[in-house]
Amino acid sequence: MKDNQENEKMIQKKVFKDISDPVIDEFIQLFQSGDRTVFPEIIERSERLLKKAVYRRFIKGYEQDDLYQEACLILVESIKKFNPSKGMSFNQFFSLSLDNHFKGLIRRNNALKRKSFKESLSLEGTLEEKGYQLMAETGSIQPEDQPIVNETMEEYIRYLSDFEKEVCLYCYLGYPFDMIADKLRCTKKQVMNAKHRCTDKYRQHFL
């Protein structure tokens, strides 16, 4: 019981750790008042937060040096925008700005990935007899990108009727329209029409 209480205290202490620095707050006020000589001091006292922001952080397309430069740009921006009347210390404001900026980079990176895969998952292509291609070749998808592919396909499937889902699956597996019609006990024309509807829905919602 005592150990649990101590652990809870340690967790609370870690979560609510005060990162305020009255000295840097004073330097920021001097800088905003026109005293540029304090800038090296601001950099020095911000170094710990700069390094912490990029430590073990990975964003595709960015090296560690790139991330550090991004953090430095946010530092300069934070110095200009900081307003002590908002009830927040500079370090708190700077840390929040860093967090928001890097989350934004990740969102943009994922958005570009999603756009790329939506284009690569186009239903156009292949022979008419086999239907349109549903997705890129499995071998072309990198393991780290598989969740994005899965999410896109799961969202796409929700737009299809039960019959369209079956047609879609058989086309993906490589069955020709004649065989699909036989398996689903319908006409080849019905299969082709369903496949075209699948294509139209994909274009409408994802391209």
TrEMBL record:
A GO biological process held by the record: DNA-templated transcription initiation
Domain RNA polymerase sigma-70 region: 43-110
UniProt xrefs under Gene3D superfamilies: 1.10.1740.10
Domain of life per record: Bacteria
GO MF, one annotated term: DNA-binding transcription factor activity
NCBIfam families reported for this sequence: sigma70-ECF
Protein name: Sigma-70 region 2
Species: Alkalibacterium gilvum
Lineage: Bacteria, Bacillati, Bacillota, Bacilli, Lactobacillales
